Amino acid sequence: MLQAREDVIHMLKTEKTKPEVLEAHYGSAAPESVLRVLHRDAILAQEKSIGEDVYEKPISELDRLEEKQKETYRRMLEQLLLAEKCHRRTVYELENEKHKHTDYMNKSDDFTNLLEQERER
């Protein structure tokens, strides 16, 4: 409908507009008839869209996007919790290895001291 109005305005503004062109396009060459045709087209366009809710599609898209975001957020939290669990386990294993190493070094020092004492005797 908007395009039709722009076409009429363009045709009326240009000097090349001949009555035959208007008549071929709108069924009449008189500008008054063209306006009546535009009015008729506007009424027909309104009748087509009476049952349509212009917000229905955007709202459904927004709802779909919101659900998708919630699902993505939930999966991200699961991955974050899994990474945290793995990190905790790694820290625990490193602490355990640190204690084992300390024990080994202490035993090694004790053994070295015993060997030195034996050698001195």
Question: What would you say about this model in short?
Answer:
The chain is mostly helical and 121 residues long.
Description:
The protein is mostly helical. It has a domain at 2-85. Helix content is 85%, strand content 0%. The protein has helices at residues 2-13, 19-26, 31-48, 56-120. The termini are far apart. 2% of the residues are buried.
Please tag this protein with its features.
single chain, 121 residues, 0% strand, Cortactin-binding_p2_N, coiled coil, Cortactin-Actin_Reg
What is the element layout, followed by pairings?
Blueprint: H1 2-13, H2 19-26, H3 31-48, H4 56-120
Number of discrete helical segments? 4
Global Rg: 42 Å
Spans of 5+ residues with little confidence (pLDDT < 50)?
none
Instruction: State which percent range the strand residues make up.
Output: under 5%
Helix vs. strand class? mainly alpha
For the record, give the distance between the C-alpha atoms at the N and C termini, rounded to a whole number: 113 Å
Q: Biggest β-sheet: count, sense, barrel?
A: none
